[in-house]
Every structure is written in C-alpha cells, then in structure tokens.
Design goal:
about 15% strand, 16 helices, about 550 residues, alpha/beta, about 25% helix, binds alpha-D-glucopyranose, 20 strands, binds calcium ion, eight-stranded parallel beta sheet, five-stranded antiparallel beta sheet
C-alpha cells in the first residue's frame, strides 16, 4: 500500500457560518477562522476542510453557488481568504475547499443565461426537458429536499432538473463546455495554493440520458443508477484527474452518497486515477418509518457489520474517510454516545477511540472535539435548514404524521444540530459573536466550551489532541491491517490492527452498563496506548464500566 500524507492526515471540518464571527454581525467569517488557527494548530490537526465560502444567495447555506471565484460577502473578501490561507500554511495547516459542481445556484450567471431561451449559448449547461404534458414533469424523480426534482420554467415552457432545492439547478456534465469551465475553475484555485477539494455529491454528476421513472424515496442513494454513479461518472472523474488533480500535490475526497465498497475501489482505488478517498454514509444512514427522520439508535451489531465491512473490503485497495458527524448529521455524542451529563465526556472519548483507531483518514467536525451536543429544539420555528423546514412541512403540516410522533424524529436528525455556533467560552453567545448569532447557541455552553476544555487536561479536547498525536507516532494506526473481533456482541466494539510485528487491540463499551470482557491472551499485560479511564490490564478478566474504552499495544 502506498504511503501518502493524506492517508496520515487528520482533517478538521469548518462550517464557516458557525465557526467564529469577527465583526459582530452574528455570522461566522474568514477573519474569524484566521483568528482561531492557533487553536486548531494546538489541537494538532493537519488539514482544514472549509464548507463553501463562495458567493451564494444561501438557499442551502452556500451549497448553492452563484460565483465560484468570489467570496460570499458575509464571509469577507478574497484578500481575507488569501491571508487565511497563508496564515494556515505558516502553521503547517493545509486547506481543502468544498467543490460544489453537481449544481450551481439559479442565480449563477450561467443559469440566468440558460433559462432565457432554448437557443442561448448556456442552454445546454443545465438539464432541460419537456414535461410529459403541461402539468406533469418529465419523470417522477424526487428532490433530496422534498417535492419533484423538476421545476417548470415559464420563459421557455420547459422543466429543469434540480436534485436538491429548486434554487440548485443541476449542471449538465455531458456538455464538454461545462467540464472545461469546472476544470478551469479548479485549476484557478489550485494555482492559488489550496491543498485539495472535498467534492459535494460527486457521485451524482452523471445522469442517465433518457431519464426513466424511478422509485421515489427520500434517500438519494435509491435513485441509482439513474443519477447516482451514472453512466459516465468514472470517465468524468478520470478526465478531471488527468486535467487538474494529477498536476498538483493535493488531497481529494468525494462525497459519494450510495457508494458500496465495490464502487469505492473504483472511485478511490490505489491506482484508478480518480479520487484519493470516498466519504460514504452507510454507517449513518439508519432509516425508519419516516425515512431518514428517525430517533432510533443503531443496533450495535448492525453498525459494526457496516464499519467492519468497509475496513476489511478496502484494505490495500482503496481509501476511506472516518467520521461520526458533519454539517449534515446530528452531533456524534448525542447520536452514537450518550449526552446525559454523567456520560457525555466518557462516551465522546469512547467514540473518538473507536473511530481514530480504524483505517482511513479521520474527520473531526467543529465542536466534536469538545463533545458538543444536539440542540434542545422547542418548536419548528427554530429550524433554519431548508431540509428540516421542508420535511416538517411535508410530513407534519400536510397532516401525514402528528407533531407528537414526528417531533422526536426530526429533532434527532435535523442538520441544524450541527450548525449551532462553536462554543468558545462561557461569555455571552459562547464567545462566538458579540452580536446576535444567526442561529441560536446551545444553552449548555457554560459547561461545554473550548476555553474550559483546553484548560482541563482530562477534557474531551485533550483526549482528541492525544489521539491525533498518537497517529503521528504510530504508523499502525494508519497502515495496520484491521480484524474485527466479537462481531456478535451487542455491547462491545472490539478489533485489532496489525503492522509487521506490532499488534494493537481496541475495546469500546457502547453501553451505559458494566460488561465483562476477557482480554485475548496475546494482549494480557500489554501496555495501554490510550484509555478514557483507568483499569488493570495485567488481569485477563475485566469488568468494563459504562462507555469505557482502551487500546492495548
Ligand atoms: C451535500 C452537502 C449538503 C448539501 C447538498 C447539496 O450533501 O453536504 O450540505 O445540502 O450536498 O449541495
Ligand atoms: Ca461576521
């Protein structure tokens, strides 16, 4: 297996709107990021991934871009960006940009031209079709944010495709001019000195030309093969690799909804010349009767089955990302751990142990290193996210489900949980802004904040810092071969890693109960690499306490 810097890197995701506000307007910005680079350096991460900072009307918080080469005014200027980039580089931090090219904003110049007439030179930049008749869209595809994926446009009496909101028309990747525009734009950013791209829903850029009807579900993986892993997806990524990516020493990660381990070997194979790694969702896609809106926890054996399969199948063949949460997911500790005050820190550390000891590049979503929790929503008026707002409308206001039934589900999974401001200290608005934040601060900021945690050597923050440092010192964490143990246990997540003659054992108690565990013979008396509480590993028989986690080597 090739050794590369991006396999060894720990990535920290910044959601700029909620990270740090520098000018009191309540919106996080680029200068705010620059002001916190020392904190990130101290944590020890290698790469910063910035969610979109480009010009955007913000229908989907920047994932609807109206100019790929301009900075969103609320976030600052290009000069602020250049300064941030150079300050990051001074500290040895790399910067990866979000690349959102499945769609643009409907306010992008290309789309404003495209919709003018069927003859316009930009017409074919987007996907236009006649309706089945005046009132029926070309097919039954649903948008990931609810409703039809087609929007009727009066100017030319045709429909355009939008797999997300109607303000996010899909680009037509079959048009070579579109590919050239995108590749030129990427080259422009690379020449500026950025260190890579996180590619938004990149598995969706190629669509089946004849666009047949498909099953309508709320999960976009299910549209496959019509618009996920479409017919030319690998061709286009190889072309992108040849024309742009291979010319720079950069990191690329493809957000690939619906990907399987087989497909990942193509998207992010050791020598398939597409992307460096995939970002896949199987382990966070537990669905219930209301689709993704579900408050149930995974059964541990199911969760392990998925994560173990990704570990084993990709070994030596392809590279994966490791994450529990991001800007589209609820907070890790609330979802996979236990955010009751008694167990919050322990379970956050347990989850971090479990993930960082696996193979893949770990991603830390802002605030995860503090053990930040889901937000205690009181009413639907508190939602800012288009997905939550539409879902509440579609399921509840339509009368399909009662508020009582749906409320625990939507609050458990709303993307807004991850989007509340980073809690920096215990001053007003958690030190995020001197003004009124665009989205409410979680009221638990007095107890959970960066200032308190950086000062406390036993904090979740210091535990993450230690895990990151361990990765630098122990190549086994990056390159070791993974082997699952105790696959049938509903309580414990246990696995080993092996590199040459070194072997490591990870043991995590996912419950709030005491569980007995006998250490495999070869690890009895070995030394402890990291643990979230003390225990005596010279004994074979142990009683693990709630959320206990340790690593022996
Ligand atoms: C990705 C992004 C998400 C966005 C969507 C549309 O899934 O992570 O935030 O809403 O793509 O761009
Ligand atoms: Ca601001």
């Amino acid at each position: 297996m090739n050794r590369t810097w991006w396999k060894e890197a720990v990535i920290y995701q910044i959601y700029p709107r909620s990270f740090m506000d520098s000018n009191g307007d309540g919106i996080g910005d680029i200068k705010g990021i620059t002001s916190r680079l020392d904190y990130l350096k101290y944590l020890g991460v290698d790469v910063l991934w910035l969610s979109p900072i480009y010009q955007s009307p913000n229908d989907d918080n920047g994932y609807d871009i109206s100019d790929y080469q301009a900075i969103m005014e609320e976030f600052g200027t290009m000069a602020d960006f250049d300064e941030m980039l150079s300050e990051a580089h001074k500290r040895g931090l790399r910067v990866v940009m979000d690349l959102v090219v499945n769609h643009t904003s409907d306010e992008h110049r290309w789309f404003m031209e495209s919709r003018k007439s069927t003859e316009n030179e930009y017409r074919d930049y987007y996907i236009w079709r006649e309706g089945k008749d005046a009132k029926t869209p070309p097919n039954n595809w649903g948008s990931c944010f609810g409703g039809s994926a087609w929007q009727y446009d009066e100017q030319t009496a045709m429909y355009y495709l939008h797999l997300f909101s109607r303000k996010q028309p899909d680009l037509n990747w079959d048009n070579p001019k579109v590919r050239k525009e995108v590749f030129d734009m990427m080259t422009w950013w690379c020449d500026k000195g950025i260190d890579g791209f996180r590619m938004d829903v990149i598995s969706m850029i190629s669509k089946t030309k004849d666009m047949p009807d498909g099953p309508i579900t709320d999960f976009y993986g299910d549209y496959s093969p019509y618009c996920v892993h479409g017919p030319n997806i690998h061709k286009y990524l190889q072309e992108m690799n040849e024309k742009v990516l291979s010319r720079y020493d950069i990191m690329t990660v493809g957000e690939t909804p619906g990907v399987t381990t087989e497909l990942a070997k193509q998207y992010a194979g050791e020598d398939t010349h597409e992307l460096n790694m995939v970002f896949q969702f199987e382990h966070v896609d537990n669905h219930g009767k209301y689709g993704k809106w579900d408050a149930q926890k995974w059964q541990l054996t199911k969760l392990k089955q998925i994560l173990n399969r990704w570990q084993v199948d990709l070994y030596g063949k392809a590279w994966n990302s490791l994450f529990w949460d991001n800007h589209d997911q609820p907070r890790a500790v609330s979802r996979f751990g236990d955010d009751r005050p008694r167990y919050r820190e322990l379970s956050a550390k347990m989850l971090a142990t479990c993930l960082h000891m696996m193979q893949g590049s770990p991603y830390i979503y802002q605030g995860e290193e503090l053990g930040m929790t889901n937000y205690p929503f009181q009413s639907p008026e508190e939602f800012h996210d288009i997905e939550s707002i539409n879902a509440y409308q579609e399921w509840c206001l339509s009368g399909e489900v009662s508020h009582e039934d749906f409320w625990p589900c939507i609050t458990a999974r709303s993307r807004d949980n991850a989007r509340t401001p980073v809690q920096w200290d215990d001053s007003a608005q958690a030190g995020f802004t001197t003004g009124t934040p665009w989205i409410a601060v979680n009221p638990n900021y007095k107890e959970i904040n960066a200032k308190a945690e950086t000062e406390d050597p036993d904090s979740v923050f210091h535990y993450y810092k230690k895990l990151i440092a361990l990765r630098k010192a122990n190549p086994i964490m990056v390159y070791g071969k993974y082997e699952p143990l105790m696959e049938d246990s509903e309580e414990l997540f246990v696995y080993t890693r092996t590199l040459d003659d070194v072997k490591l054992l990870t043991v995590c108690n996912f419950t709030d109960r005491r569980i007995s565990f006998s250490i495999p013979e070869e690890f009895v008396g070995k030394s402890c690499l990291i643990a979230n509480m003390e225990n005596d590993y010279s004994k074979k028989e142990l009683t693990l306490r709630p959320y206990e986690a340790f690593v022996l080597i």
